[in-house]
Amino acid sequence: MKQQRLLSLDAFRGLTVAGMILVNNPGDWAHIYPPLEHAPWNGWTPTDLIFPFFLFIVGVSITFALSGKEGDRMAVGKIVKRSLTLFLLGLFLNFFPRFDIMTVRIPGVLQRIALVYLVCSLLYLKTTPRQQLYILASILIGYWLLMTVVPVPGIGYANLEPTTNLAAWLDRVIITPAHVYKATKVWDPEGLLSTLPAVGTGMLGLLTGTWLRSDRPATDKAAWLFAAGSGLTLGGIVWDSFFPINKALWTSSYVLLAGGLAMLGLALSYWLIDVKHYRRGVLPFVAFGVNAITVFFLSGLIPRMMSLIKVTGAGGLPQGLKEYLYQTFIAPPFADPKNASLAGALTFVLIWFVILWLMYRKNVIIKV
Fold it and tell me: Which of 37, 325, 343, 364 has the fewest CB atoms in 10 Å of its CB?
């Protein structure tokens, strides 16, 4: 058990990454079904669970990748190198295609993954599971107190509003408005302070991975994961009443809710795939899972490259190749623009599945 790769973990990671690609690449951003959009502020949708699921999986994966390397000094260097690579890949996506250093967004999804991977990997090597549990509790309670008790400079009181909360203030001071997410202008959903509880999401994965790697019977591990996941989910719902579930702020209640649901999803996958050996329909998700970072990076880069290629569209007007293909071949059969937009996203996922399936069959795994 301790030496083998969990097929359920690869499948769960693949399902999560496929979800990322689906919600990030609609055919038409103006027409999207509500479950495929983020909640405007407080609350959550299925889309809001995708990123924390991935960070949770990062934590679980660390326990399998770094087990037995606690005293290996070279392991720390490799961790730092991989974190830097992920951060720079994310920064490159933000730079492309303008490469304007004066306005480039510095935070981002890959950047947050890099930071969470770095901190969680070092914690795994240097601390015990009991210490990790104490650190996790301190992060969640400490972040709650920071956001709800500490007065915001220039505002005078603690609050959780979009532009006046403590995390937004810190982004404006350190990152500056020129380098945050352009849609929000003065704060970033992957900003500095909210990265702290995001580390907590990764730590939930660490504790889960340690549990899965234990010598306990597989049925006991699955049962206790279901119980822990249910408890965390309930805890997030209760905490929501006084520290609202909010992805942009990555609130502590959001950590518990998303972490609990991720734990339930992995427990179900583990029970079906690794305990009961149910494998039908699993391999397509495994194909996504083993090249997760590669497909996420390229699925963000290639559409931008296609948009730079100008072709003559309807009415003789120039348009990007991606939009042209969507408007010419995907949208026309659909009367409802939301169905057409969803079909565009599903087509994109299907194209990537074909590519990743061929890579999987040929055992091509690109490690970042």
Answer: 364
